[in-house]
Amino acid sequence: MKLMIRKNNNGALMAYVPKKDLEVAITESEKPELWGGVVTLANGWRLELPEMPGDTRLPITIEARRLEG
């Protein structure tokens, strides 16, 4: 699924899913650099993000995979 990741005014990471018109905070990240791991959104969704360099600039639109469970 397409996913846009950005930082809000407070510096918190936010995820926007255009197809669902849904914007929620990223509450947990499996890896400190975010990329190539699994993140958890405030609504409970778990998404696998692609591998990217740690210094990737935000905002960015990526292809993420939603994990079940």
Describe what this molecule looks like in 3D.
With 69 residues, the chain is mainly β. It has a single domain (2-67), classed as Beta Barrel (OB fold (Dihydrolipoamide Acetyltransferase, E2P)), CATH 2.40.50. It is built from no helices and 7 strands. A 7-stranded antiparallel sheet has the order 6-1-2-3-4-5-7, with no helix packed on it. The protein is globular and about 30 Å long. The two termini are 17 Å apart. Pfam families: NifT. This is Putative nitrogen fixation protein NifT. It comes from Acidithiobacillus ferridurans.
Low-confidence stretches: none
What string, H for helix and E for strand, traces the elements in order? EEEEEEE
- The beta-strand count equals 7
CATH class: Mainly Beta
Structural class: mainly beta
Radius of gyration over C-alpha positions, nearest whole angstrom? 11 Å
The CATH topology name reads OB fold (Dihydrolipoamide Acetyltransferase, E2P)
* Tally of individual domains: 1
How much of the residues is beta strand, in percent? over 45%
